From TrEMBL:
It comes from the Bacteria. The lineage of its organism: Bacteria, Bacillati, Bacillota, Clostridia, Lachnospirales. Residues 433-531 form the HTH araC/xylS-type domain. Gene3D superfamilies: 3.40.50.2300, Homeodomain-like. May play the central regulatory role in sporulation. It may be an element of the effector pathway responsible for the activation of sporulation genes in response to nutritional stress. Spo0A may act in concert with spo0H (a sigma factor) to control the expression of some genes that are critical to the sporulation process. Residues 2-119 form the Response regulatory domain. One of its GO terms (molecular function) is DNA-binding transcription factor activity. This is Stage 0 sporulation protein A homolog. Keywords: DNA-binding, Phosphoprotein, Transcription, Transcription regulation. It comes from Anaerocolumna jejuensis DSM 15929. One of its GO terms (biological process) is phosphorelay signal transduction system. The modification 4-aspartylphosphate is found at residue 54. CDD domains: REC_YesN-like. InterPro entries: CheY-like_superfamily (IPR011006), Homeodomain-like_sf (IPR009057), HTH_AraC (IPR018060), HTH_AraC-typ_CS (IPR018062), Sig_transdc_resp-reg_receiver (IPR001789).
Length: 540
């Protein structure tokens, strides 16, 4: 995958080239252009996947370039950079289907997040194009009817009699034998996983079904992969007939492990596999119900689980005596001991697995944790929206009673944020003091928000918001104020040139220093020096 960086400011292009983790994003080729004409030449020579482009440039804007590309049917994914958040530009960018519209002063993390979305879209299109070339044939082929037959058979929606099963099987050209047993592999993945947030349900289900089909059946569109269409998770059933797939359990487990590795590599997601005992085709609906129960009752992190009928029907109720005391969680949460809290929750899950506690345990733990979280937030005079502030957090919260994965993620995220809020309550003056001290000692050097944040152990974006909230001034403006004050004594020394004064207090360019000085003092550095010079005593 490749990307082109377009900006008339060479330093901006260089900064993007050197600071963004391109390899991590899966981008292996970076092209650069410093004006519209250079960019057009490259687009005419090379197929480019992603474009990061300045909007305002000499001899043409980024919007005009994207219009030119769209007129030539280019589907390049575009991220615009600008110094000014102008509505007209953002409106045009949206109309031209750009991915994002970002201010140049934004952090690298913000730009990388936009790039990650662009990369996911490009990957989705590549995967879709790879498989949808057969789209029309797929809709009209026998495979579609065959897949629907197995789907209806698995969910017990249509077939209650063997005669009806045989009639439809014959109609669709399917050979079916009631005396042969098959194995069902039930494949699930929680939709709340962060890696799946940029995928819609259709894309996720389609991609996972095709990957499963290729690995298990060496066919990208096997009718034996059934999409069970669940809202809170991807749920697929792979029907494995003898002769089509090896019935050696070691081979099936190896294929599931290969699938797990592929899902992690391609989609970066965590998947569970539940392998049934051999069963007859009329037993498919009941078998899938049991596998679904096994998934709902699963409080283990094991990815590949072999179904045992006797064990699966032996889950205890939470009301029975256990060694689990949920009350142990509250003091850990209230005192911000997040690591110990999460460790205790994992200990609960281990006990639950040993005692075969099922989905009722997950539900009860979720309800109890959310109750103590509300209580702790109220006791510490915090706002719940500090904890539940994003779509993913809301999804985890809503699914926490149904999914062990979502519950553990929700507890980890919410407890960590609660602990951070406690720390912010306790230490705001010392953080501001440390920031001001760092700036006072390093004003003459190039200071970045990330450097200061690293010094005080905070997230860069959070630090900027926190500093503004506590002081009423932007962090960048405060740095400039310190530099201006430090420059005043130097301006009184006529042996130091104005440009040297600018460099000595940390400004790269005198013109910028002069602009900031006038903004703060109402006069330029030259006028300030001249004014002080006129006040000095004259000796004849």
């Amino acid at each position: 995958m490749n990307v082109i960086l377009i900006d008339d400011d060479h330093s901006t292009v260089e900064m993007l080239q050197t600071t963004i983790s391109w390899n991590t994003l899966g981008i292996d080729k970076i092209l650069t252009a410093y004006n519209i004409q250079q960019a057009k030449s490259l687009f005419q020579e090379i197929a480019i996947d992603i474009m990061i482009c300045d909007i305002e440039m000499p001899n043409g804007t980024g919007i005009e370039l994207l219009e030119w590309l769209r007129n030539r049917n280019s589907n390049v994914k575009t991220i615009f950079l600008t110094n000014h958040a102008e509505f007209n530009f953002s409106q045009q960018a949206i109309k031209l289907e750009s991915i994002d519209f970002i201010l140049k002063m934004s952090s690298i993390e913000v730009i990388e997040a936009a790039l990650r979305r662009a990369v996911n879209i490009v990957k989705t299109i590549e995967i879709t194009n790879r498989y949808l070339d057969y789209g029309h044939q797929w809709e009209n082929s026998r495979g579609l009817f065959s897949n629907k037959f197995w789907h209806d058979l698995c969910i017990g929606k249509k077939y209650t009699e063997k005669a009806k099963i045989l009639l439809d099987a014959k109609k669709y050209g399917i050979n079916i034998d009631f005396h042969i047993k098959s194995i069902i592999i039930y494949i699930t993945a929680s939709r709340s996983q962060e890696a799946l947030q940029d995928w819609n349900h259709t894309e996720t289900d389609f991609c996972m079904a095709n990957i499963s089909s290729e690995v298990l059946f060496n066919d990208s569109n096997s009718s034996y992969i059934i999409n069970l269409e669940k809202d809170n998770k991807v749920a697929l059933a792979a029907i494995c007939h003898p002769g089509v797939i090896s019935f050696q359990m070691a081979d099936i487990k190896n294929m599931c492990q290969e699938l797990s590795d592929l899902y992690r590599k391609i989609m970066n997601c965590h998947v569970h596999f539940y392998i049934s005992e051999p069963c007859y085709c009329e037993q498919f609906p009941d078998t899938l119900i049991k596998l679904e129960e096994l998934d709902n009752n699963n409080v283990d992190s094991t990815q590949i689980i072999m179904w045992n009928m006797e064990e699966s029907s032996n889950y205890n109720l939470i009301e029975k005596n256990t060694n689990i005391d949920f009350e142990e969680l509250y003091p850990l949460l209230l005192t911000g001991q997040t690591v110990l809290l999460i460790s205790k929750v994992k200990e609960f899950f281990m006990i639950a697995q040993e005692q075969k506690l099922g989905s009722q345990f997950t539900c009860r733990l979720s309800q109890h944790y959310n109750q103590i979280l509300y209580t702790a937030i109220k006791e510490k005079n915090l706002e719940f929206n500090c904890i539940l502030e994003g779509e993913r957090e809301l999804l985890l919260y809503n699914h926490s009673t149904k999914s062990v994965y979502d519950l553990l993620k929700w507890i980890t995220i919410s407890a960590t944020r609660f602990s951070n809020e406690l720390q912010n309550q306790k230490q705001p003056p010392s953080v501001i003091t440390e920031v001001e001290k760092y700036i006072d000692e390093n004003f003459q050097n190039r200071i970045t928000k990330s450097e200061i944040a690293h010094f005080v152990y905070l997230n860069p974006d959070y630090l900027a918001k926190f500093f503004k909230k506590e002081t009423g001034i932007l962090l960048s403006d405060y740095i400039n104020q310190v530099r201006i004050e430090k420059s005043k004594p130097l301006l009184n020394d006529l042996s130091i040139s104005l440009s040297d004064v600018s460099a000595m207090v940390g400004f790269d360019y005198y013109s910028y220093y002069s602009t900031i000085f006038k903004k703060n003092e109402g006069i330029t550095p030259k006028e300030y020096r001249a004014g002080n010079l006129s006040k000095m005593p004259r000796y004849s």
